[in-house]
Amino acid sequence: MEFRFSSHIQGLQSSAVRDILKLTQGKQIISFAGGLPAEELFPLQAIRDAALRVFEGGKASLQYGLTEGFLPLREQLCGRMAVKGMQVEPDQMILTTGSQQAIDLLVRVLLEPGDVVLVENPTYLASLQVFSLSGLRVIPVASDKDGMIMAETERLMREYKPKMVYVVPTFGNPTGRTWSLERRQGLLDLCSHFGVPILEDDPYGEIKFNAADQFPTLFSLAGKADGSCVLYTSTFSKTVAPALRTGWAMGDRRVMGMLAKAKQAADLHSSALDQQTLDQLLRHFPLDAHIRKIGEAYGARLKQMEALLGSRNWPDVQWISPRGGMFLWLEFPEALDTEALLRAAVAKGVAFVPGAAFYAAAPQRNMARLNFTYTDGERMELGISRLSEALGEFTARM
Amino acid sequence: MEFRFSSHIQGLQSSAVRDILKLTQGKQIISFAGGLPAEELFPLQAIRDAALRVFEGGKASLQYGLTEGFLPLREQLCGRMAVKGMQVEPDQMILTTGSQQAIDLLVRVLLEPGDVVLVENPTYLASLQVFSLSGLRVIPVASDKDGMIMAETERLMREYKPKMVYVVPTFGNPTGRTWSLERRQGLLDLCSHFGVPILEDDPYGEIKFNAADQFPTLFSLAGKADGSCVLYTSTFSKTVAPALRTGWAMGDRRVMGMLAKAKQAADLHSSALDQQTLDQLLRHFPLDAHIRKIGEAYGARLKQMEALLGSRNWPDVQWISPRGGMFLWLEFPEALDTEALLRAAVAKGVAFVPGAAFYAAAPQRNMARLNFTYTDGERMELGISRLSEALGEFTARM
């Protein structure tokens, strides 16, 4: 039996991160590659207690749930969104299997193969995979430290008539970039004017190193859900734990209705046990204090990594210090190919993600994404020391 | 902002079951509509204990998991499959969010919009929705109590060159039909000959009223995973509980590799907490004895429903008694439209699913699907009594 595969799945590149994780399996590799949160900070006891309360609720908790997701959790989430200036009702929100599923389903609902989507340059790898799986044409928009450059965005909108703009405006992946208020407002104005939906992907927005920082979401700037061009997604993976695989999408009621139809076909609903556990967690656990603690811890880890990098005297390595999130985006000298460097690094026992995979077109080959949240202390020190060794030998050969 | 929706999502009908559930919300309706398992039989205590053991394993249990699913659970599942004559390795298996997701992802991996899929007539509604969402052309094959009629299957294969055949050969939905061994072997031979993948959907196969009954899966008849045309999916939703949303797909290693790429884009992975809980459950809970208990209980419920129907003297209502599963498929006199009957029934406080939704084309309008697993005892009696009343008034008006 010879199987024939759909053209889009054949065109889909396996994730670089995934391939690296395979490369490192079973070895004593220190990984700065994955986007993994710090396990030490998972609120295990509180999640356990929350799950026990769900089980105390009886056997009905184990039955099929609503496609849209467990209503009490949606209600609580709407309250949390309101605190961040986002006005949304439970029927303008759908719970998903992580925010990754929200991205996939929104694309299936709103776009056709061949449609154009505009993205930051560079942007989140797994979203590029969704776009590829759906046969979209991805056009990267020139971007700097403040976000997409608006003149370019407008020019490309006129030229390509995109059917969606995809952005991670706060503590972006891979760059750690945070959009300025002007750029946020600028994109919102452009998309409102041209009638183009914005998919605002905000998995990291709450992971701030300085709790006082305020970066209004595009969704909050739009001021409403119905009729707004902003469709928003976020997740509990970074603030609680990834294993519970719960994210959400929110926005215009009609879009959410279509999303529910698509989700019904895709998997009926996401884990009802996880959703009920998160609902109980939100009722009994001080999640906001916990998120502040995560932000502080990650800020300290970033400082450690920056200090280690600074002490190494690497030639011409540059970065912009992020104000939140999980990633440091390093720029090496132009001649240095980070995919080749990765092979040398893995041989030394350390991994990162070469930057090329994050570009929709014309990749810059001298970039590297380092995660600073999964390791710390001596292990981070050892990892940077190994990377330094690899870099030394590698550049000696260049 | 005016949203434009993709043509396939616009064409997707909302599920009849879903609409009925909405209709019944907040009312004291006795529902024979949903495919809901009996809540009384959920092994709540064992699931609770299993979850506690996962939490005892420490914080790493809350981290991101593999796209393919938790390996120890796949290993145990392979052992369970072997007992049923299905030889499969962990890397020929992927855990999914229920078997519904397995169906959706396999379609995305193997088919292109416009491709033809052959289905039983009638067949599972939510699969028809997946096919619609993916823009497939669905051709129903004339089927009788033993399965698809092979001469017709062969004729349609030659005429339409389908890219997939979708079947539920054991205790089908909605019909409760179980394919004969001859038809199983016949379809396998045809599809091997023509090189057409078979998607064997087997959510109910273990729910047997007579534990001694043996109905070999198409997958077991094929004798191997790699190179076989049979791709198989099943779920824990009916044997353990739906809230844990864990199903699996298995088959040719190369197809599973493509499926993993698609799943990575679709949601990275399904709930790792649910998968680990099921892994612990399988280690400490006698699942096979539990499944026998479910089969016996459901068999008794079916008997009760058949007795109630038999005692009612409805004019010309016929059915074939299923040997397992969750559904009774009623044929009313030809002139009786069950969608109209449903409205009368809901007014009386009872619901079922009109059969028309299960037909890919040319629906038979006098069929009804009744679930007999969710209710029993006096409540089932009351439900059938209400349905009887509705039918009496309805036919008096005809």
Automatic annotation (TrEMBL), chains A, B:
Q: Name one GO molecular function term.
A: transaminase activity
Do the record's keywords include Glycoprotein? no
Task: List the InterPro entries hit by this protein, alphabetically.
Answer: Aminotransferase_I/II_large, Class-I_PLP-dep_aminotransf, PyrdxlP-dep_Trfase, PyrdxlP-dep_Trfase_major, PyrdxlP-dep_Trfase_small
The GO biological-process annotations, alphabetized, read as: alpha-amino acid metabolic process
Top-level taxonomic group: Bacteria
Q: Where is the Aminotransferase class I/classII large domain?
A: 41-379
Asked if the record carries the keyword Transferase, the reply is: yes
SUPFAM superfamilies (UniProt xref): PLP-dependent transferases
Cofactors (names) = pyridoxal 5'-phosphate
- Alphabetical keyword list: Aminotransferase, Pyridoxal phosphate, Transferase
Subunit structure and binding partners: Homodimer.
Assigned protein family: Belongs to the class-I pyridoxal-phosphate-dependent aminotransferase family.
Q: What name does UniProt use for this protein?
A: 2-aminoadipate aminotransferase
Organism (species)? Paenibacillus nasutitermitis
Please name the taxonomic classification of the source. Bacteria, Bacillati, Bacillota, Bacilli, Bacillales
